[in-house]
Write a structure and sequence with these properties.
Layout lengths: L5 H5 L6 H24 L3 H21 L6 H23 L2 H19 L8 H5 L1
Helix pairs in contact: 2-3, 2-5, 3-4, 4-5
Protein name: Flagellar protein FliS
InterPro entries: FliS (IPR003713), FliS_sf (IPR036584)
Main location: cytoplasm
């Protein structure tokens, strides 16, 4: 049996690529939700901050996709771009429904990502 040091117990190993994408998606959902709530409370500074954070995450996710990986990869790029556009429109037009739509879309993507069976979480599957 392998012994683990106190450091290894205190700082578990870094998540795999699937876990990182999952964490980013859930954080984007959270930020998008915060933006909608801030907009409803007329806290425009907080709304801007939350939208910028969500957009940065979407940009990172979009940049990580290999477009040559096929149709699924291209669809994900489209969905990330669309969600970002809806966040921007919601902020500019002070439209909570646009932000809510982006939040729902991101939540669906995050849910689908989390539902991928472990045996299909290979590096090849992540490229899509």
């Amino acid at each position: 049996m392998k012994r683990t040091s106190p450091e290894e117990r205190a700082f578990p190993s870094e998540p795999d690529a699937h876990g990182k994408v999952s964490l980013l998606l859930h954080t984007a959902v959270h930020r998008s939700h915060l933006a909608g709530r801030a907009l409803s409370e007329e806290d425009h500074a907080q709304c801007s901050e939350a939208i910028m954070a969500a957009l940065q995450i979407l940009d990172a996710l979009n940049s990580a996709i290999d477009p040559s990986a096929g149709e699924l990869a291209q669809r994900l790029q489209y969905l990330y771009s669309y969600a970002g556009l809806r966040l921007i429109e919601g902020h500019e037009q002070k439209d909570p429904e646009s932000i809510a739509e982006a939040t729902r879309l991101l939540a669906q993507i995050a849910s689908g990502w989390s539902a991928i069976p472990k045996e299909q979480r290979s590096a090849q599957a992540l490229a899509a």
